[in-house]
Design a protein that fits this description.
The chain has helices spanning about 10-20, 35-40, 65-70, 85-95, 100-115, 135-140, 145-155, 180-185, 215-225; strands spanning about 75-80, 125-130, 165-170, 190-195, 200-210, 230-239. The chain is of the alpha/beta class. Strand 5 (about 200-210), helix 9 (about 215-225) and strand 6 form a beta-alpha-beta unit. The protein has two domains: about 1-40, no CATH class; about 45-239, Rossmann fold. Helix 4 (about 85-95) crosses helix 5 and helix 5 packs across helix 7 (about 145-155). The protein is globular. It is built from nine helices and six strands. The strands form two sheets. Strands 1-6-5-2 form a four-stranded parallel β-sheet, with helices on both faces.
Length: about 240
Protein backbone atom coordinates (compact mmCIF):
# COMPACT_ATOMS: atom_id res chain seq x y z
CA UNK A 1 0.00 0.00 0.00
CA UNK A 2 1.32 3.42 -0.89
CA UNK A 3 2.08 5.96 1.80
CA UNK A 4 -0.73 8.56 2.01
CA UNK A 5 -2.64 6.38 -0.44
CA UNK A 6 -6.06 7.37 0.92
CA UNK A 7 -5.52 11.12 0.86
CA UNK A 8 -7.65 12.49 -1.94
CA UNK A 9 -6.42 16.09 -1.78
CA UNK A 10 -3.09 15.84 -3.60
CA UNK A 11 -2.46 19.56 -3.23
CA UNK A 12 -2.60 19.19 0.54
CA UNK A 13 -0.36 16.14 0.38
CA UNK A 14 2.17 18.01 -1.74
CA UNK A 15 2.28 20.83 0.78
CA UNK A 16 3.05 18.34 3.55
CA UNK A 17 5.80 16.68 1.53
CA UNK A 18 7.28 20.05 0.54
CA UNK A 19 7.43 21.00 4.20
CA UNK A 20 9.08 17.73 5.25
CA UNK A 21 11.28 17.44 2.17
CA UNK A 22 11.75 20.97 0.80
CA UNK A 23 12.47 21.26 -2.91
CA UNK A 24 16.04 22.14 -3.78
CA UNK A 25 17.40 23.20 -7.13
CA UNK A 26 19.36 20.39 -8.78
CA UNK A 27 21.87 22.94 -10.00
CA UNK A 28 22.58 25.23 -7.03
CA UNK A 29 20.67 23.58 -4.12
CA UNK A 30 18.62 26.73 -3.50
CA UNK A 31 15.33 25.89 -1.82
CA UNK A 32 12.00 26.52 -3.51
CA UNK A 33 11.98 24.56 -6.77
CA UNK A 34 13.78 21.67 -8.43
CA UNK A 35 15.32 23.88 -11.13
CA UNK A 36 15.60 27.60 -10.45
CA UNK A 37 15.32 30.11 -13.30
CA UNK A 38 19.00 31.06 -13.08
CA UNK A 39 20.23 27.47 -13.44
CA UNK A 40 17.66 26.70 -16.14
CA UNK A 41 19.01 29.61 -18.20
CA UNK A 42 22.54 28.19 -17.96
CA UNK A 43 21.71 24.78 -19.46
CA UNK A 44 24.04 23.93 -22.34
CA UNK A 45 22.29 23.23 -25.65
CA UNK A 46 23.63 21.17 -28.54
CA UNK A 47 24.59 23.62 -31.25
CA UNK A 48 25.99 21.23 -33.87
CA UNK A 49 24.95 17.74 -34.89
CA UNK A 50 27.41 15.10 -36.01
CA UNK A 51 25.74 11.84 -36.99
CA UNK A 52 24.19 10.53 -33.78
CA UNK A 53 25.07 6.97 -34.80
CA UNK A 54 28.53 7.00 -36.39
CA UNK A 55 29.66 10.49 -35.23
CA UNK A 56 31.58 11.06 -38.45
CA UNK A 57 29.80 13.93 -40.17
CA UNK A 58 28.59 17.31 -39.02
CA UNK A 59 25.18 17.81 -40.58
CA UNK A 60 21.85 19.41 -39.77
CA UNK A 61 19.81 16.19 -40.08
CA UNK A 62 21.73 14.55 -37.24
CA UNK A 63 21.94 11.27 -39.21
CA UNK A 64 24.15 10.60 -42.24
CA UNK A 65 22.68 8.93 -45.33
CA UNK A 66 24.29 5.55 -44.58
CA UNK A 67 22.96 5.51 -41.03
CA UNK A 68 19.51 6.63 -42.18
CA UNK A 69 19.24 3.42 -44.17
CA UNK A 70 20.88 1.25 -41.54
CA UNK A 71 18.94 2.49 -38.51
CA UNK A 72 15.62 3.57 -40.09
CA UNK A 73 15.88 7.13 -38.71
CA UNK A 74 15.59 10.00 -41.22
CA UNK A 75 16.48 12.80 -38.82
CA UNK A 76 17.62 13.05 -35.21
CA UNK A 77 17.18 16.06 -32.95
CA UNK A 78 18.40 16.36 -29.36
CA UNK A 79 18.44 19.34 -27.04
CA UNK A 80 21.39 19.01 -24.70
CA UNK A 81 24.38 16.87 -23.73
CA UNK A 82 23.52 14.22 -21.17
CA UNK A 83 26.76 14.18 -19.20
CA UNK A 84 27.92 17.06 -17.01
CA UNK A 85 24.77 19.02 -17.75
CA UNK A 86 21.73 19.94 -15.69
CA UNK A 87 19.45 18.56 -18.42
CA UNK A 88 20.85 15.07 -17.77
CA UNK A 89 20.26 15.46 -14.04
CA UNK A 90 16.68 16.47 -14.72
CA UNK A 91 16.09 13.37 -16.84
CA UNK A 92 17.56 11.11 -14.17
CA UNK A 93 15.48 12.65 -11.40
CA UNK A 94 12.30 12.34 -13.45
CA UNK A 95 12.95 8.67 -14.23
CA UNK A 96 14.52 7.35 -11.06
CA UNK A 97 13.39 9.74 -8.31
CA UNK A 98 9.91 10.14 -9.82
CA UNK A 99 9.87 13.95 -9.75
CA UNK A 100 7.11 14.23 -12.31
CA UNK A 101 6.96 18.04 -12.39
CA UNK A 102 10.35 18.02 -14.14
CA UNK A 103 8.51 16.87 -17.27
CA UNK A 104 7.36 20.46 -17.84
CA UNK A 105 10.91 21.82 -17.58
CA UNK A 106 12.22 19.19 -19.98
CA UNK A 107 9.43 19.89 -22.44
CA UNK A 108 10.34 23.58 -22.26
CA UNK A 109 13.90 22.73 -23.32
CA UNK A 110 12.61 20.81 -26.33
CA UNK A 111 10.25 23.60 -27.34
CA UNK A 112 13.13 26.09 -27.21
CA UNK A 113 15.30 23.84 -29.40
CA UNK A 114 12.51 23.34 -31.93
CA UNK A 115 12.11 27.12 -32.12
CA UNK A 116 15.86 27.74 -32.47
CA UNK A 117 16.14 25.16 -35.27
CA UNK A 118 12.99 26.52 -36.95
CA UNK A 119 11.34 23.10 -37.01
CA UNK A 120 7.87 24.17 -35.89
CA UNK A 121 6.27 24.26 -39.36
CA UNK A 122 7.99 21.09 -40.55
CA UNK A 123 6.84 18.90 -37.67
CA UNK A 124 3.23 20.02 -38.09
CA UNK A 125 2.76 17.13 -40.54
CA UNK A 126 3.94 14.51 -38.05
CA UNK A 127 2.33 12.34 -35.37
CA UNK A 128 4.14 12.21 -32.04
CA UNK A 129 4.81 8.73 -30.64
CA UNK A 130 6.56 8.32 -27.26
CA UNK A 131 8.68 5.22 -26.74
CA UNK A 132 6.51 2.92 -24.60
CA UNK A 133 7.49 1.16 -21.38
CA UNK A 134 6.78 -2.50 -20.78
CA UNK A 135 3.74 -2.95 -18.55
CA UNK A 136 5.89 -4.28 -15.69
CA UNK A 137 8.24 -1.29 -15.83
CA UNK A 138 5.25 1.04 -16.06
CA UNK A 139 3.74 -0.54 -12.95
CA UNK A 140 7.00 -0.11 -11.06
CA UNK A 141 7.49 3.54 -12.03
CA UNK A 142 3.86 4.56 -12.13
CA UNK A 143 4.26 6.67 -15.28
CA UNK A 144 6.06 6.79 -18.61
CA UNK A 145 8.39 9.80 -18.62
CA UNK A 146 8.47 9.93 -22.42
CA UNK A 147 4.69 10.03 -22.52
CA UNK A 148 4.45 12.85 -19.98
CA UNK A 149 6.86 15.06 -21.90
CA UNK A 150 5.25 14.16 -25.24
CA UNK A 151 1.83 15.27 -24.04
CA UNK A 152 3.14 18.78 -23.36
CA UNK A 153 4.90 19.00 -26.74
CA UNK A 154 1.86 17.70 -28.62
CA UNK A 155 -0.36 20.30 -26.96
CA UNK A 156 2.10 23.11 -27.73
CA UNK A 157 2.29 22.29 -31.46
CA UNK A 158 -1.20 20.80 -31.86
CA UNK A 159 0.25 17.47 -32.99
CA UNK A 160 -1.61 14.16 -33.06
CA UNK A 161 -0.37 12.05 -30.14
CA UNK A 162 -0.40 8.25 -30.55
CA UNK A 163 0.10 6.77 -27.09
CA UNK A 164 -0.84 3.21 -27.95
CA UNK A 165 0.42 2.78 -31.51
CA UNK A 166 3.64 1.10 -30.36
CA UNK A 167 3.71 -1.64 -27.75
CA UNK A 168 6.69 -2.86 -25.77
CA UNK A 169 6.24 -6.61 -25.75
CA UNK A 170 9.60 -7.55 -24.27
CA UNK A 171 10.58 -6.56 -20.73
CA UNK A 172 14.18 -5.60 -21.48
CA UNK A 173 17.02 -4.91 -19.10
CA UNK A 174 17.74 -1.24 -18.41
CA UNK A 175 19.69 0.05 -21.41
CA UNK A 176 21.89 2.32 -19.28
CA UNK A 177 23.60 -0.72 -17.79
CA UNK A 178 24.51 -2.33 -21.13
CA UNK A 179 27.18 -1.95 -23.81
CA UNK A 180 26.21 -0.95 -27.36
CA UNK A 181 26.27 -4.57 -28.56
CA UNK A 182 24.23 -5.73 -25.58
CA UNK A 183 21.69 -2.96 -26.15
CA UNK A 184 21.02 -4.10 -29.70
CA UNK A 185 20.50 -7.71 -28.62
CA UNK A 186 18.45 -6.62 -25.62
CA UNK A 187 15.97 -4.72 -27.81
CA UNK A 188 15.60 -7.29 -30.57
CA UNK A 189 11.87 -7.90 -31.11
CA UNK A 190 11.08 -5.60 -28.16
CA UNK A 191 8.38 -3.62 -30.01
CA UNK A 192 5.23 -4.41 -31.93
CA UNK A 193 2.42 -2.39 -33.51
CA UNK A 194 -1.16 -2.06 -32.38
CA UNK A 195 -2.79 -3.24 -35.58
CA UNK A 196 -6.13 -1.67 -34.61
CA UNK A 197 -4.66 1.82 -34.96
CA UNK A 198 -4.30 3.85 -38.16
CA UNK A 199 -0.66 4.12 -39.19
CA UNK A 200 0.53 7.69 -39.89
CA UNK A 201 2.95 8.30 -42.77
CA UNK A 202 5.23 10.59 -40.74
CA UNK A 203 6.18 10.01 -37.12
CA UNK A 204 8.25 11.74 -34.47
CA UNK A 205 9.58 9.10 -32.10
CA UNK A 206 10.24 10.63 -28.71
CA UNK A 207 12.51 9.32 -25.95
CA UNK A 208 14.31 11.02 -23.09
CA UNK A 209 17.90 10.10 -24.02
CA UNK A 210 19.69 9.16 -27.24
CA UNK A 211 22.80 7.17 -26.29
CA UNK A 212 23.55 4.52 -28.91
CA UNK A 213 20.17 4.98 -30.59
CA UNK A 214 19.32 1.31 -30.19
CA UNK A 215 15.87 1.89 -28.66
CA UNK A 216 14.79 4.44 -31.23
CA UNK A 217 16.24 2.40 -34.09
CA UNK A 218 14.39 -0.77 -33.12
CA UNK A 219 11.12 1.11 -32.74
CA UNK A 220 11.67 2.86 -36.08
CA UNK A 221 12.40 -0.48 -37.73
CA UNK A 222 8.96 -1.77 -36.76
CA UNK A 223 7.30 1.42 -38.01
CA UNK A 224 9.15 1.52 -41.33
CA UNK A 225 8.46 -2.16 -41.96
CA UNK A 226 4.75 -1.48 -41.52
CA UNK A 227 4.82 1.37 -44.05
CA UNK A 228 5.74 4.60 -42.24
CA UNK A 229 7.54 6.90 -44.71
CA UNK A 230 9.47 9.25 -42.41
CA UNK A 231 10.73 8.93 -38.83
CA UNK A 232 12.29 11.73 -36.81
CA UNK A 233 13.97 10.80 -33.53
CA UNK A 234 13.52 13.51 -30.89
CA UNK A 235 15.15 13.37 -27.46
CA UNK A 236 15.99 15.67 -24.58
CA UNK A 237 19.60 14.52 -24.21
CA UNK A 238 22.35 12.96 -26.27
CA UNK A 239 25.35 11.09 -24.91
Amino acid sequence: MRLFGRIKNKGFLNKILDYIFPKKCLGCAKEGEYVCSACFAKIKYLESFSCFFCHEENLSAGVCLACQQKYNIDQAVAVAPYKNNLAGQMVENLKYNYIEELAEKLAALIITQIKDLELGKRISEYTLVPIPLHKKRLAERGFNQAEKISQIIAEKYDLPLALDLLKRVKNTYQQAKLTREQRLVNLNNAFSLNLNKKLPEKIILFDDVFTTGATLSQAAKVLKKAGVKKVIALTVCHG
